[in-house]
Description:
The protein is α/β, with parallel strands linked by helices. Helix content is 15%, strand content 16%. The chain contains seven helices and 16 strands. The radius of gyration is 27 Å and the shape is elongated. It starts with a helix and ends with a strand.
Amino acid sequence: MRITAIGRKTTVLRENVEQLFTKFVEEGKATIRLKEPAVDVCLSKANANLLKAFLSAVKLANSGTHEESMPLSALAPAKASEVEKPKTRMTITSRKEYPLTRNFPYSLEHLQASYCKLARVDMRMLCLKSLRKLDLSHNCIKKLPATIGDLVCLQELNLHNNHLEAFNTALCSSTLRKSLQSLDLSQNKIRALPAQFCLLQELTHLRLDDNELIRLPFKIGRLRQLRFLSAARNKLPFLPDDFAKLSLENLDLFGNPFEPPRPLVPDIQLKIPLTLLEYSARATVNYRILYGRHILPSHLCDDLDMSKTCQCGRACLTCFIQATVTMKLSTVGVHTVAVECRT
């Protein structure tokens, strides 16, 4: 490579340099962070004086200076063995290895940061737009930021053995709806997943073992791509009726305190009058009346999207009578580990 090449390609650099990292320029090292494509160009083993001149030329090109005005000199082309390929994978398995003073390579596709005692998701990770797999298992994370949803390529997210108490509802409406295929939330402190969780319709693998779950999302049947579900050792007393719509290859519900059946009494009726909201919501869903956020407030649209369906086939919102019956899990999963379950 020759520095003069920068002069001929000033249009490539003009207003396209996001940041220059020059802390170790005296050691012949520097990093140029570009906006488009979003990559880090890492320079090393360079002559310090020539590197400074090169970085000055980069700054001038970024500001729009014409190539003829640049102090450029020729460099011998680098050998193929001296050119480092973009780093796509990084594994960190201790606090000591964790990078506190340098950024993660922008080219990363797989990042594992386990056993690092992280109390929160490092915001630097959320700039890795090529990231496909993020493993943050065995940390101390208590809350997930909504900005994880900005990782548009993310397919696998492992949060095993953290301190999570909830799953951020905003993530269910993010770009993860179209990308996330595998999610591991096992060994946390989650009591319930949001109803909107079922919007993550590309999920194929879901691990929920060893939490404190008292219920599963009642629209879980919408996860039509789901093939592996493990929710062993929780506090589930029953399964939602929608559970029967799943088509799983592997299912593990071992160690949950499922209740005995409590079928409906034939002549049982609600003893409280329905609210106007309940009447209107039922009519909207039952008669398939079109609605949207341009017509109704967003929270009402969310309620309608998550309305329940009675065994009679009609919709209800918040006023209903709950009953539990026995479900044959062999109709849901090919390989099943569980005691007798109720819905």
